[in-house]
Structures are given as C-alpha cells and as structure tokens.
Amino acid sequence: xxxxxxxxxxxxxxxxxxxxxxxxxxxxxxxxxxxxxxxxxxxxxxxxxxxxxxxxxxxxxxxxxxxxxxxxxxxxxxxxxxxxxxxxxxxxxxxxxxxxxxxxxxxxxx
Amino acid sequence: xxxxxxxxxxxxxxxxxxxxxxxxxxxxxxxxxxxxxxxxxxxxxxxxxxxxxxxxxxxxxxxxxxxxxxxxxxxxxxxxxxxxxxxxxxxxxxxxxxxxxxxxxxxxxxxxxxxxxxx
Lengths: 110, 119
Fold this sequence. Notes:
Radius of gyration of chain A: 13 Å
Structural class of chain A: mainly beta
Order of helices and strands of chain A: EEEEEEEEEEE
Mean pLDDT of chain A: 96
Strand content of chain B: over 45%
Largest sheet of chain A: 7 strands, mixed
Oligomer: heterodimer
Largest interface: A-B, 25 and 21 residues
Number of strands of chain A: 11
Helix content of chain B: under 10%
C-alpha cells in the first residue's frame, strides 16, 4: 500500500520561508493526484489552504502557495507569521475513489 | 452559512456498535460528495469514507471495510456512519467534511465527535 510522506517537523523564523513536501513511498506526485493542503491547530477542525495543487482557498493569505517540486507536492509559506504555527497535512487522490492523507508536518515559528 | 454538526460519539466497548450523524445546513446537501475523516488522539488525519451525492457510490479505507457503512438522507440533509465491530484503534475524533465541486478537496469541516473504544 502506498504511503503519503511528509516531514514530521519544521522550524522557521518569523518572516522566513519554509517549504513542506508531500511525496509517495513509491512513485511521483503529479497534478493528477489533486494535491490539497490543510492547516490544523490543536483542538480545532482542519482548515483548507490549497487545492488542485496550487489554488488558494477563499480567505487564505497569499503567503501560502502550492506547487509540484520535482516528484513531490509542496506547500511554501513565505514570510511566516506566529499564527502559522500549526500542523499541516497534504491529501492525495489515489484513484478508484480512494484518498490518503500524509502523516502531517508540525511547523514551529521561532 | 455552511454548517456541519456531528453527533453520536461516545464510549463503547470493543466489538460494539455506534452510529454517527452529521447534520448539514446552509447549502444544497444533495449536490455534494460527503466524507468522514478521523483523527486518533495525538495522531494525524485519516480519510475514512466518501459517499456520492445520491448515495450510489461509496468508498472506504481498507481498515474499516466490512465494518463501517457510510450513508446519507438527502431529505433530512444528514450524513451517517454506522460503525460495527469496533476496535480500540477506531478511537478517534470523527469529522464530517464536505467535498467541494468538483470533488477535489474538502471545503468545509464539522467540529468533530469523539469515539472512544475501551472496555
């Protein structure tokens, strides 16, 4: 069974840039996997940030951007702010109606 | 305003059953794929099941196939998850979520309901 991989954690300085990635244990991520990204703070429901690889959801600041980098989907935060400190999850479509979340990346801003 | 409100969570013994409900409002429920996503304590998100607008197409993660059933009642704007043969590893917060149109991402989430499977 294919596993969706994400970095367990990342640290970024306020105002800095960080790129989170979303890959596959076997194969490459492409736009056909419909990568989307979700932000979650403790005790809260997830919030949709990016869908269809690089489309920002309504109300999401433009410091969040999505792309394909090499063989992985990527979420870049440019000009990180304190309230960006959260868990970030990618979601990929595996075909045949099956979706899989990555394990999540905990981002610390300090 | 789109709202998704889950209910039905609680404590259940291993091998037991529970039925979760999700009441939807603020949108045309029958026009959207719907989904259940869960999150075990301290763990990441896990997609559980999807159901098509008219209920004719359903998909499940392998770990719940044959034990869980997703269903919907469009007349009542409600989504359900019937969970049977529950195991300790099913302990999680269960979120009801709406797939956008086209169904390539979640766009709205409920606040979740906690299911605890323990003796």
